[in-house]
Write a structure and sequence with these properties.
Helices cover 31% and strands 13% of the residues. It is built from 9 helices and 9 strands. Strand 5 (192-197) and strand 6 (201-206) form a beta hairpin. Helix 3 (96-108) packs across helix 6 and helix 6 crosses helix 7. The protein is globular, with a radius of gyration of 20 Å. Bound molecules: zinc ion. The site of zinc ion has 5 residues, from loops.
Length: 313
Amino acid sequence: MASLSPTPTSSYRGRLAPSPTGYLHVGHARTFLTAWQRARDAGGALVMRMEDLDPDRSRAAYADAAIEDLRWMGIRWQEGPDKGGPFAPYVQSKRRAIYLAAWRKLLRHGHLFPCRCSRKDLESALGAPHERVTAAMQGSLGKLDLMDDDPIYPGTCRRLQGNIPQLPGPTASEIESPDGINWRFRVNDGEVVEFDDLNLGPQRFVAGEDFGDFVVWRRDGVPSYQLACVADDAAMGITEVVRGADLLKSTARQILLNRALGYQNPRWYHCRLVVDHNGRRLAKRHDSLSLRAMRQRGLTPMNIMAADLPEEA
Ligand SMILES: [Zn+2]
């Protein structure tokens, strides 16, 4: 395979952003290969960023495995945790100051409200199945599993501002840390968010219908995927985001965050998802489809890329 040019000849900057919460499977491999090919064809740079913010599910061993598996696939990058680069560190758990600055900016501009709803409050307000709400609240299923299916927030705490008297405690300018409470981004109900996907074509979502006020900082002290992603893409000068189609709705949320933070939107290329023979999206339960397992069975990267795997419509 032709390789990335060591010195980029264009302003294209793409990224690979694995979550080290399990072994990469064949679906990830296809998306990451697409990201690598597009960066290479554009004569651009490819950044590896380890998205290890989930304190309960991230493991250093999975991060090492992701790097090893991607290298085995023949995928290369110019900047990353293993290589360093001008925007280091390339590991999200070491970039808290960047996310805090973004949270402060959103708070100062009135985009956020503190949400004191317990899991139980949301369950009863939504009448949603217990497990679904629980998982979404905790973010416990991770970005690849549930992010786009976050139940619509019922708006219970929406009228509260970080700096008005209804909220007991300090005013916005005095709030030093977001930890200990969920902070949500207030959307404008009915606002249409549209973008042209480079692979899937025109996309259209409606705030308040397709997604509601979403969490940007979790009570357990970590920024949400949405906030960390836009802050990092902006800080690292990413011009094109290649990722799975399970994140289309996240892109709509991220467009709103980019506008609120004054960041430029990158372009997006969402890859169709590989599904199993029952039409279900691949997940960690599909151990036999992990790159690791396939390699152990003697398959080559070429076998994996050439395999005729079903994709989600
Ligand atoms: Zn609430």
